[in-house]
Structure formats: C-alpha cells, structure tokens
Write a structure and sequence with these properties.
This protein is mainly beta. The chain contains 3 helices and 20 strands. The longest helix is centred in the middle third of the chain and has 11 residues. The two termini are 25 Å apart.
Length: 314
C-alpha cells in the first residue's frame, strides 16, 4: 500500500495516550534465549542458525521483532549500528511503501520523494504494530522532487517499477544485482532474474520483491558511510528462512556491513540496499526522532521505504 503522507510534527498531544498504551504491551520479547552455545563473538541459539552477538544490546522488542544496537563509544562520531530481527513465521511482517506515482504509464514511473518522518507519521498512526521504518531502494538522486527507481520493485503482487530501462544504474555499472523475495511467513535472497518478476502471488512468486546489489558491490565499498543491508536467516535450521534481518548503520564499509549480518547475526544471505545519505531509521521506541539521520546537510528525501510491523499481541 502507499500511505498518504503527513508531516511528523502534525502529531497531536493526544497521540501520547496511544503511544503509552502501545508501550504497555511491549515487554522485551526474546531478551533472554535459553539453551545457548558459543558461536564466535556471538551466541547461537540451540537447534537454530541464529546468532545473538555479544557486542549488541537489545533496545526494543515486540512480538516477533527485536532491534539490537551497538554504539562505538571510542569513535568521535559516536556512530551506532542497528539490526532489526523480524520473525515472519510469528506473524511479524514487512510493508513496502513508495511515494505517490506521477506517471503510471511508464515501466519506471516518476514517484514523489518524501522525508522519512512524513512516511513514518502515517505508518505509525495507522498501524498499532508499527515498529520501525527504514530507507530501502536505490533511486535517481539527481532528480530532487520526483524520481525514478534504479531497480525493480514489486508491492502486494503488483510490479511498481522495472527500474532503469538499461537494467544498469549509471552510478554502479556492472554491479551484480540481488533480489529480496518476501512472502507472508518466509523470505529468500537470490541473484537477480527478471523472469522472477511475476505478477500476482504464489508459492513460486513472492508478492513483495525489492532489487538491490550484492553485499560487496562497488558503491564506495571501502569508505565509511551510511549502509542499509538486508539479510535472511533460518532460526529453526530447517531450510526455511523465516527471519529477515535489516541493518541500518551510520558508518561502515561494505565488508563491515556484511560481517555484521553474516558473522555477528549469522544471516544465511545478505544484500545491499541504498546507503550513504539515504540511510535513515526511525522506530517506535523513539517515535519523534530518527535513530539514524541522513548524513546529508539537508536530510535526504527518499521515494521508497520498508516498514516493519510486530505480530499482533495475544
């Protein structure tokens, strides 16, 4: 779905009651895991392939979702890394949002860019289970108000955009592309294959797909920059990837971002989403300000985001 955006500062004081009620039911779900064994600098849950790193702390949790934080205190920039772990099998879910479409006849339509806070305002107030909102898709940052996506996007069974006609992002020519396929209770990351951009939804055709780059793509790979990465994990060790892991970090190389997901959190797969000044994150644990702000002097507006919803409370 595409939300009708409103500014975050339009929230009224009466919304505080809703906020308080929501947090009353948010006990730190999954703070302690039983029967654990060593896994490098992490702990590996018994009979699973999901790691809990020692240097990350739980800062928020709700049914089916947990967000971990690591602060680099010795770093003068005091930057932080955040990883959300979303268990789709528990009823937690992802929503892909995009700005209003302005030219619907195109395979790569123009869509509006909006501040993250505007999208969050609508998402948070319209969904009791709203947990976090992060940037996602690569796009043409040279277009200031209306823009196009670099790569394909599919939302709720409908292909929103096929990306640049050439299939190449001019800022990353030849960069390998990857696809995140999201079903109701599991997800998978594969190499990009245009034939997998099927309309509708079935067991072989995910209703929601976002295309990004391989985790080591040459997008300032060795620079310390904002990074947004996504991974999948198999908590039960049964070959079904019911976990989605979403990394938002204000300062990391491509290798460091990959290591956070694949080594610290033992993700089975990972891929790169848009980063740099696009990397932004806002969550219900502090709904009035982003946990990670755009590194641009004027916070970057973005056309596409991923919303995380917790499972419904019993």
């Amino acid at each position: 779905m595409t939300p009708t955006f409103k500014k975050a500062n339009d929230m009224k004081s009466r919304d505080i009651l809703k906020l308080m009620g929501r947090f009353a039911g948010r006990i730190l779900f999954g703070l302690m895991l039983s029967n654990i064994s060593a896994c490098g600098n992490s702990t590996l849950t018994d009979n699973s392939a999901f790691c809990v790193p020692h240097d990350f702390s739980v800062v928020g949790s709700a049914p089916g979702v947990t967000i971990y934080e690591r602060t680099w205190a010795a770093d003068k920039t005091d930057h932080k890394d955040y990883v959300q772990v979303i268990d789709l099998s528990s009823g937690a879910s992802l929503e892909f949002f995009h700005g209003p479409i302005q030219t619907s006849s195109s395979d790569n339509p123009l869509m509006s860019r909006e501040p993250l806070e505007w999208v969050w305002s609508t998402f948070y107030m319209d969904n009791d289970q709203a947990f976090c909102l992060a940037n996602a898709a690569f796009f043409n940052n040279d277009l200031p108000l209306l823009t196009t996506l670099a790569y394909p996007l599919k939302v709720d069974g409908n292909i929103v955009s096929y990306g640049y006609p050439s299939g190449e992002d001019p800022h990353c020519r030849g960069c390998p592309k990857m696809m995140l396929h999201v079903w109701e209770n599991h997800a998978v990351i594969t190499e990009y294959d245009k034939s997998m951009l099927c309309q509708g939804s079935s067991s072989d055709c995910a209703p929601n797909i976002i295309v990004g780059n391989s985790n080591n793509a040459d997008r300032r790979a060795t620079d310390l920059a904002g990074r947004t990465y996504v991974g999948t994990g198999d908590r039960q060790g049964d070959g079904i990837h019911e976990l989605v892991l979403l990394l938002s970090t204000s300062n990391a190389t491509a290798q460091q971002a990959t290591e956070i997901l694949e080594q610290s959190f033992c993700a089975s797969q990972s891929m790169m989403l848009d980063g740099g000044g696009s990397t932004q994150l806002i969550c219900s644990l502090d709904p009035d300000r982003p946990l990670i702000r755009s590194s641009d002097s004027n916070p970057r507006t973005i056309p596409q985001t991923i919303g995380v919803l917790s499972a419904a409370s019993d």
